[in-house]
Amino acid sequence: MRLDQFDLALLEAVQQDATISQQDLGARVNLSSAAVNRRLKKMNMHGVIRKTVALVDPAHLGYALTVITEVEVESERLDLLDAMKRSFLACPQVQQCYYVAGACDFVLVMLVRNMEEYTQLTRELFFESNNVKGFKTLVSMSNVKVGTAVPVGSEGH
Amino acid sequence: MRLDQFDLALLEAVQQDATISQQDLGARVNLSSAAVNRRLKKMNMHGVIRKTVALVDPAHLGYALTVITEVEVESERLDLLDAMKRSFLACPQVQQCYYVAGACDFVLVMLVRNMEEYTQLTRELFFESNNVKGFKTLVSMSNVKVGTAVPVGSEGH
DNA sequence: CATGAAAGAAGCCGTAC
DNA sequence: GTACGGCTTCTTTCATG
């Protein structure tokens, strides 16, 4: 799908705040509310906009700790990797999981209430998998930036 | 702010899809649309819901690569660290940045169009800071999970 | 104090131009 | 692309347990 300057301007706006009314969006990008409606609907259908969600502050739900875990696997056998991926996907505390090339194999970003909860999770996710050679834990002291906005237009030099 | 079962059920729903109408939400949790409206407004004001945003598919904007970078700093002097944090915050390709305890000091999750863009960013962010001892690059081969939903209720173990 | 019902305001979205 | 109009959704008020 081809995106013009109007689409990009709309994407930039709704990535910051999806509650802005379509006529306010129109005023911002110089378009009628009907045109805004059509463009947003199109981008939703084409998957440019994956979904619209509320972002919840983890602290208000007791999730005080962000932990990053680098996991090294024993075997790269596809069925074993898939089983691991599935267990990471199913775990609600796992916010993100990347399968990476490099020194380790998986990088996980997790949200936990306390260290006990993390310890418990490492048992479930790593020890019980029987395919984890080792893992390294990095505890976040400061979540400097936790963003969701994809760069739009010419921001990225 | 104290959250009851209704609030938690609403949070769980709007974290998945914030476009559901308030009366549909009400039907789901057994509450009138007016009550849903009041509760959502309250949680917005108290910061339990930080914001509501559209999630954009990076691939549709040409951002094909996810790169994780572990940065080791030269000096832990506060003013130098702050300057680094600011530069990470200001960089739109940096999706997340954590200041961590452990083997390295910063973990960055970045979204780039290609390796050239990443190389260019490492120059701007790391070499020009004059406070980076070294960094390790992990390229994601598969974004297994990139979620935003904070666990709610008894999902956690 | 939070709820549900109902009325008024605001926003969405199809049709026409 | 814009302008209009019906229809849905939101939001406030008010009486109630």
Automatic annotation (TrEMBL), chains A, B:
One of its GO terms (cellular component) is cytosol. It comes from the Bacteria. It holds the Pfam family AsnC_trans_reg. This is DNA-binding transcriptional regulator, Lrp family. GO terms for molecular function: sequence-specific DNA binding. The keyword Transcription applies. Keywords: DNA-binding, Transcription, Transcription regulation. Residues 3-64 form the HTH asnC-type domain. PROSITE patterns: HTH_ASNC_1, HTH_ASNC_2. InterPro entries: AsnC-type_HTH_dom, Dimeric_a/b-barrel, Tscrpt_reg_AsnC-like, Tscrpt_reg_AsnC/Lrp_C, Tscrpt_reg_HTH_AsnC-type_CS, WH-like_DNA-bd_sf, WH_DNA-bd_sf. The keyword Nuclease does not apply. Gene3D superfamilies: 3.30.70.920, Winged helix-like DNA-binding domain superfamily/Winged helix DNA-binding domain (1.10.10.10). One of its GO terms (biological process) is response to amino acid.
